[in-house]
Amino acid sequence: MTSKRLCYEPGHQPKCLVVVDDSAEWDRAVYYASRWAIRAGGGVVMLRIIEPEPQSQEWLGVADIMRAEAQEAAEAALDRAAGRANGIAAITPERVIREGAAMEQLLAVIDEDPDIAVLVLAANPGAEGPGPLVTLLAHELGTFPVPVTIISGALSDQSVDSLS
Q1: Can you count the helices (H) and strands (E) in the chain?
Q2: What's the pTM value of the predicted model, to 2 decimals?
Q3: Residue 59 per-residue DSSP state
Q4: Which of 1, 33, 75, 160 is most buried by a 10 A CB count?
Q5: Each residue's pLDDT tens digit, 111-125
Q6: Chain segment 16-53, per-residue pLDDT in tens
Q7: Inter-axis angle of helices 26-40 and 60-89, nearest 10
Q8: Could you give the CA distance from residue 25 to residue 91 in angstroms, rounded to a whole number?
Q9: What letters, b where the CB count within 10 A reaches 16 and e where it falls short, cover 123-149?
Q10: CA-CA distances (angstroms) from residue 6 to 105, 110, 117?
Q11: Where is the UspA domain (predicted)?
């Protein structure tokens, strides 16, 4: 992992990393990250992770089609999220699509961009728990390379405005 963040060094800009997934609360994370970018004078990096399906030799053609469909869905999700960020903060976020295990890809993106200053996730407010990524991340927080902000999926725009 990168030992030093460069986000506040001359010639660099702090960035907020936000994961755009299929959860109902992704919008809360994008909203907070966009508001953070305004206040920090920074940027937003939106990450969509495609977790690969197990493959066998006889289904490789189907796997290629599924991969192309997942790529298309990822682009569409990032289009929606980028439109939301632009509407909130008049910014054009960076877009990253990665394929692989969620935590591995998340750490790789942070390692590759020393300007990432914070990770923002949104937690599901329902009884089923905060969501798979928040749950997975909870076990890594003690060694995570950047601060993590977890936003409640139950917060309104006005509530997030007052916090950011």
Answers
A1: 5, 5
A2: 0.87
A3: G
A4: 33
A5: 999 999 999 999 988
A6: 999 999 888 899 999 999 999 999 999 999 999 998 77
A7: 50
A8: 21
A9: bbeeeeebbebbeebeeeeeeebbebb
A10: 20, 12, 9
A11: 15-117
